[in-house]
Amino acid sequence: MKSVLEAVGVLLLLNGAAGLVYEAIDWFGPWSLVHRVGGPLAGMEIFANLVLIVLGAAVCAGAGKVRGPG
Length: 70
Known about the structure:
The two termini are 13 Å apart. The protein has one domain. Helix 1 runs antiparallel to helix 3 (45-63). The protein has helices at 2-25, 33-37, 45-63. By secondary structure, it is mostly helical. The chain is built from 3 helices and no strands. Keywords: Membrane, Transmembrane, Transmembrane helix.
């Protein structure tokens, strides 16, 4: 379970970072989930990418608190 949470956290971090890079210099467009969703997040892409980064960091930090079996 711990490794799954860590993987999800890293994916969220990378996706948020890719979205910020896309906003800044138009790279990594296909990687950004926020730009694929589009409609409801129109005009708030930077904020949504920052939220993904913070959420990914929180999931990674929370994964350290999960105990293994035994």
